Amino acid sequence: MIRPLDGMLVADLSRVLAGPTAAVMLADLGARVVKVERPGAGDDTRAWGPPWAGSSSAYFESANRSKQSIALDFGDPDDLATARALVDRADVVIENYRTGALERFGLDAVSVRARNPRAVYCSITGFGSTGEGASMPGYDFLVQALGGLMSITGDAGGEPRKVGVAMVDLLAANHAVMGVLAALLHRERAGGEGQHVEVSLMGSLLASLANQASSYLTTGQSPRALGNRHPSIAPYETLRCRDGMLAVAVGNDAQFAALCRELGSPELASDPRFATNPARVAHRDQLEAALEALLAADDAAAWAARLLAVGVPAGTVNGIGEALALARRLGLAPTVAVGEGHPEQLAHPVRYSAFAPVVPTAPPALDEHGAALRAWLAEG
Question: A Pfam family for this UniProt protein (predicted)?
């Protein structure tokens, strides 16, 4: 079986989540990924527990499968020579150091590409590599705050809230993979020349604000948090049933009419306050009260089944365990085994008709492959 990145070498100089996750995706597509870590401590996330798994933390395991680990001290001449040999042989280099920090070691984009012009060198920063942003620390939580995401997350009138997972890091990882793959394809079409690809956490977040940013650019007014409500659609929110919450995602008038029929109140669909989406948005408080009065007659799971049966998007609010169980029941195969002594991990989410992603190997122990990699790189 031929995979798109078979035979390609990725030097993963990154830490924490965005860069390591991008490198895992490239490994899934066939690349050989060598993770460079600090001697003694390794990637910061090895210590980010509990929970613990394998040789480190569950956090580290989530972003480092199918890699080889080598511990290198760039301040040591021999280790630095090994690091240079690695990046000079690599098809792709991924790093998220502070801007300029790798220059004195000859591991920055300009130096690497001078020695290895075929290299696609991917830098992930917090706020860009020029101007004031170059010196700003790039942490997901900070970018959620500065980038506006927290201002539209949380209850209406309440405190700003972060998203429950490091979403900005994960968005940046996806953008980094897109950039790397585009640069590799460009290399094929441009005579073998690599390039420097830059992704910032701030840029990835802003590019993903979609309709919320478009609303500001159209009106000049910043959107605000609305809890689980949608700023432009109703009912598109959680509604209280007899035993808990039901997520309802009505996207058009036909779905709203079907909802009203199934709830036993078809006349709501022709009520002037609710007959069109703009009217429902304008009268969302009255709409919520009317719907919740009807939903109180049964449990959320029962309503979800009934509404889905008549074409109304609805579902219970699941925990992560329930979500994974549902995905398995639907045949989505959401997890994959990585080896004895390690928990399952989330699977590569894309299905391909011509190839399958690599069967993953366990996340490495610190410097697990150091001796073999040093010997291989010394061969030249």
Answer: CoA_transf_3
